[in-house]
Amino acid sequence: MAYILKNQSLGAVGSRRFAALIAFVGFVLTIGQIAYITKTGNALCLNGGCAIVESLTRLPPIFFNMAGAAFFFVVLIFSQFARSDRGGRNVWSRLAGLLLLLAMAMEGVLVAFQLQVSRAWCAYCLLIFACIFLLNLSFGWRQFIQGLAIFAAVVVTSASLDYAPSWDMSDAQRGSYGEIVRPNAAVTARLYFSASCPHCEEVIASLGEDVSCEIGFYPLDTVPELPVAGLEKNPRYDSAVNRAVLQGLGLNEVPVLMARENKDIRVITGKEAILAFLERCRPAPSPRKPAPERQAMIPNGQSIKAPVGNNADESCPVGVSADCPSPAPAPMPGQTPARVSTP
């Protein structure tokens, strides 16, 4: 690469062949991703950061890959046409150079987004960025310096802005459906739930006017109505943010309660453990045996506590909550539990 920067002119045939090769690799990657999305309905994620970044975008991932495939195809064609350019005046070289500068600006936006907003790195996105980086490098030192300057300017400008991370308890709460507001509450909590989860319904039904904690409701899907006393609704909320929060914490079941007490953030999963914790939000709590807890970490280094054990009978899987069975009613005294026959 140093040889290309030092000795190759903008229209050198060798560098154009290298550019054509990189553009072909990028085209194959994006076409392969499009085929995978078409077949499975989901993007091929090389790491957990891909899923988080995808959940925070407004457009489906197939549109981004279609735009990427078109970009690499056009650069590939321009590189083929520019092979005969020896003096750097060929219109194909100039058009390809402009496209690559535009691509570096867009990659600056995406890299800054992953650095400041999602707080997770998408391996596939970085692979595409590497292809664009090498393409600028193959078009000569002037193109490379210009592209690098544009990329750095976008990232630095973005770094000067204040983006509140979606998992921070002090953010603008754009994922909130509504809140039970208690100005002097000692405990501030967030309840992550699904509208089709019966265990979530039981937790929400337990929240009455006697609750002294400030509780926000963060659904993973569209919620028609919540019958909660004292609930102040947010007319616009983004459930994708809430899904990203749980994915970032490695949680795939609801209900989940994220509570802040002083400087500690506790994450509690499972219906019974959440109900036991919420007893402290009432004037005269009834005795409940708290679930065992373990120490964990969240992305900003603050400590959280989450219960251990199997919550299969107290939680619903994220994404397939509609299949979550309703909790079986307890048998009456002296009544033998019914047996379910299987074919």
- Count of DSSP helices? 10
Spatially, the strands of the biggest sheet line up as: 4-1-3-2-6-7
Characterize the quaternary organization of these chains. Answer: single chain
Amino- and carboxy-terminal Cα gap: 67 Å
CATH topology of the largest domain: de novo design (two linked rop proteins)
CATH architecture of the largest domain: Up-down Bundle
Radius of gyration: 26 Å
CATH superfamily placement of the largest domain? VKOR domain
Average pLDDT figure: 74
Number of strands: 10
Poorly predicted regions are: 1-11, 165-172, 293-310, 330-343
Order of helices and strands: HHHHHHHEEHEEHEEEHEEE
- Counting structural domains, the number is 2
- At the first level of CATH, what is the class of the largest domain? Mainly Alpha
**3D shape:** elongated
Topology:
Elements: H1 2-7, H2 13-40, H3 48-55, H4 61-81, H5 91-118, H6 123-138, H7 141-159, E1 178-180, E2 187-193, H8 198-205, E3 214-219, E4 231-233, H9 239-248, E5 253-254, E6 256-261, E7 264-269, H10 271-278, E8 293-297, E9 303-307, E10 316-317
Parallel strand pairs: 2-3
Antiparallel strand pairs: 1-3, 1-4, 2-6, 5-10, 6-7, 8-9
Helix pairs in contact: 2-4, 2-6, 3-9, 4-5, 5-6, 5-7, 6-7
